[in-house]
Structures are given as structure tokens and as C-alpha cells.
Write a structure and sequence with these properties.
alpha+beta, OB fold (Dihydrolipoamide Acetyltransferase, E2P), six-stranded antiparallel barrel, 4 helices, 22 strands, elongated
């Protein structure tokens, strides 16, 4: 009410001055000098919170592109946009006939290599048994012949046989021994004529089996890639597949998002980067959804400015359990960087900037006096004064653009809240 009365008085003064030929924004003083009419406000103590206002785009926290690794004809599409999928759930199936045949061929090669190895091992074991048996028989025969010779000498020494009989028996034993030796050599030669398997050959065949097994694993992997599966749970945001078309590794076939949590990323100016930290609460406004703000939280602040831009990407996380936020929506964030209580505050419009110095006009004895000030925190409507003013000082907020320090003015005072 007071402001309206003062404004009415100002209008009357202006009309009166116009009738006397004065300019609309001035009144004549006692000396006849025209006085500018200005609006003032009081510097007062209060709480102020400086915020950084940034804009960005709402983005799902998890955004996964499912891309086929092998090009193929789409045989079946199992999901559509908006479907919720679990990890490992089938999304689509591509034509895998060629991969299936390669897999069957690899499995057949593995079975053949395994059979050849088993047969070689069997032959090798039999060969080892025959050689061991031959060596055992040969040793036994040598032992038998030696025992017969020893027995023959004992009979001769005991004079149970004559020397002639001993020599005849010895010749006969030696003949049998020679015949047995010849037969053993013939048998041994017959074994060596057979196709044998060496330990080195067995090792090579084992390696061939392992190679065949790897080929099967590779063929199974290629075959499995013709089925597209969800790498994790989430909501299908896009399906870029149609049955009969060719799916290409150069384009995402399905995009899966996690929309329960969204985030907004924006660039912090270098003056604020050291005052913003993970865990800080942030008000996020998404006009497309509602006028009220969403409560967000700073999750990450990068310590490196990309491309030397002197701005630092910060990520703010938002709860989207209600599903109101959609990817791509415009968002405005108000990030509180500092707060101070009982500070001396004036309206922003009181500031006058000349040659890089901050100053204000104050009313002293009905005159506008220019004073330099040191600024502190600021918000959208007011600024903190660190030096230069005291609480209760009357500052000019409108009409100061053409003032000169020391000039008489007609000061009207704005209502304070």
C-alpha cells in the first residue's frame, strides 16, 4: 500500500513538473535545479544461497546398444518397444543355418580325431604288452638254459654222467638255445614289421584332438551369436529389426535402458567446480513433466576439462521410479554452491559497473553518493555486500544510470518484504 501511495505521489510530481516544462523523470528543487526521481531500497541482513544454473538433457543411466556381431537375415523378433526384459532373455533370432552346418562339421572332425587317438592308444598299449611279453619270455628262456647247463655240470661233478654224456647234452642244449634265439628273432622282426605307434605320434594326435575341440567351441560361439540376448535387465527403448531384413553389425538392433534412474549431465564453470561435490542435493526442473522440481544428487564431477573448454562435466542422478522422466527431455538444474547467513544484502539492480569496478549509489542528505563495494554471494534477485555498505543503508535501485555522485535526488523508497 505504501509503495502505491509513493508511486502515486511520484506521478503527481511528474505531472506537475511536466506542466512547468520539466522532463518527466525530474522535479525542481528549492534552488530551481531539476532533481532526478529515483527508487531506493534498504540494505538489510538476511540469508543468501548462491546457485549455479545449468541446463542439460535427461538421459537413462543405463543405455545399452545390442548390436549383432555377425550380419544375418532376421528370422524372428521377440520383443517390442516398452517391454521389460531380463538378463539373457532372447530378443531376436537370425538365420543360423550356415553356422549350424559349420558346427556339425567341427563336431564330426572332433569325433574322428578322438576315434583315431583312441585306436592309436589301443595299438600302442598292445604293442607295449607284446614287447614286454617277448622280453619276459626271452629272459625266462635264458634262465632255463642256464639252469640246465648248471644242472649238467652238477651231474658230471657227482660222476652221475660221463664226460662224453655231458658234452653231448651240452651240445644238445646249445642247439635248442640257438633254435629258440632264432625263433625269437623271427618273432621280433615280425613285430617290427607291423605298423607301430610312437609316443611322439600319440602326442601329436592328442594335440589334433585339442585343436578339433577348439574348433567346436569356436563354431558353437559363432552359432550362439545368431541369437540376440539381453546383456542385462531393463526396458526396451528401441527395436530396429524387421523379419526378413538383414541385421548389420554397423547399427544397433535393440536399445535397452534402465529408466528407474535417470541422470542429467551439464558443464560446470571453473569458478564453481571446487564447490560442487558428490552427494550435493540439486533441484532439477523438467518443464515437459511439471512445474515442481525433482530432487537430484550430484554423482560425479570430472576433474579434467575436455578440449580445454574450462568447463567440467558433472552428472546429477534422478530417481524415476514413477516413470515420468523420458530420455531426451530438457532439464534445468539449480546447484547450490554456497550459503551464508546474516549477510548484508541489496537488490541486484542497485549495482553499477564502471571500468570493472562494482559500485552503488546511496542516499545521504538527499543526495546520491557513489560508493564502491566488494561483492560476495548472489542469487537471482540479490547480492551480498562484503565491504562498502552497512545494514540499513538506502541504495538506489532505479534511476541511477545518469546520476553523478553528489547530485540531489528525489528518492522514493520501495516496500520491503
Amino acid at each position: 500500500m505504501r509503495l502505491r501511495i509513493l508511486a502515486g505521489l511520484a506521478c503527481l510530481l511528474l505531472l506537475w513538473s511536466s506542466a512547468l516544462g520539466c522532463s518527466p523523470s525530474q522535479v525542481e528543487g528549492e534552488t530551481g535545479v531539476q532533481k532526478p526521481v529515483v527508487m531506493t531500497a534498504r540494505a538489510q541482513k538476511g540469508d543468501i544461497q548462491e546457485t549455479v544454473v545449468l541446463s542439460g538433457q535427461v538421459t537413462p543411466r543405463v543405455n545399452i546398444n545390442v548390436i549383432p556381431e555377425i550380419a544375418g537375415k532376421v528370422v524372428q523378433v521377440d520383443v517390442q518397444e516398452g517391454d521389460y526384459v531380463t538378463q539373457g532373455q532372447r530378443l531376436a533370432r537370425l538365420d543360423a543355418e550356415s553356422q549350424r552346418l559349420q558346427l556339425e562339421q567341427a563336431r564330426a572332425s572332433l569325433r574322428l580325431a578322438q576315434a583315431q587317438l583312441a585306436h592309436a592308444r589301443e595299438n600302442y598299449e598292445q604293442q607295449q604288452e607284446r614287447e614286454q611279453d617277448l622280453a619276459s619270455r626271452s629272459n625266462q628262456s635264458e634262465q632255463d638254459f642256464q639252469e640246465q647247463m648248471d644242472r649238467l655240470e652238477e651231474l658230471y661233478e657227482d660222476e652221475e654222467i660221463t664226460e662224453e654224456e655231458r658234452d653231448n647234452f651240452r651240445s644238445l642244449i646249445e642247439l635248442y638255445q640257438a633254435q629258440h634265439q632264432a625263433q625269437s628273432e623271427v618273432f621280433e622282426n615280425s613285430l617290427s614289421g607291423l605298423v607301430g605307434v610312437s609316443p611322439q605320434q600319440l602326442k601329436m594326435m592328442e594335440i589334433q584332438v585339442e585343436q578339433a575341440r577348439i574348433q567346436v567351441q569356436l563354431a558353437e560361439l559363432l552359432y550362439s551369436k545368431m541369437t540376440l540376448e539381453a546383456p542385462r535387465e531393463g526396458t526396451v527403448a528401441m527395436v530396429n529389426l524387421k523379419e526378413g531384413e538383414i541385421a548389420s553389425p554397423s547399427m544397433p538392433a535393440v536399445i535397452i535402458t534402465e529408466i528407474d534412474t535417470m541422470y542429467v549431465q551439464a558443464a560446470l564453470p571453473e569458478g564453481a567446480v571446487n564447490r560442487v561435490f558428490p552427494g550435493l542435493k540439486v533441484s532439477v526442473y523438467v518443464p515437459a513433466v511439471r512445474d515442481e522440481s525433482f530432487q537430484g544428487e550430484v554423482e560425479e564431477v570430472m576433474s579434467l576439462s575436455p578440449d580445454g573448454s574450462r568447463s567440467y562435466p558433472a552428472k546429477v542422478v534422478l530417481d524415476n521410479s514413477q516413470g515420468l522422466l523420458k530420455g531426451g527431455m530438457y532439464a534445468r538444474m539449480e546447484i547450490p554452491v554456497e550459503q551464508r547467513d546474516e549477510a548484508v544484502l541489496i537488490p541486484l539492480e542497485a549495482l553499477v559497473m564502471e571500468e570493472g569496478a562494482d559500485s552503488v549509489f546511496v542516499i545521504e542528505n538527499n543526495k546520491a553518493v557513489k560508493k564502491q563495494v566488494q561483492l560476495g554471494l548472489r542469487d537471482e534477485t540479490q547480492v551480498e555486500i562484503l565491504e562498502g555498505l552497512s545494514s540499513g543503508d538506502r541504495v538506489i535501485i532505479r534511476g541511477q544510470s545518469s546520476l553523478i555522485s553528489g547530485m540531489e535526488v528525489e528518492a522514493l523508497e520501495e516496500d520491503t518484504p
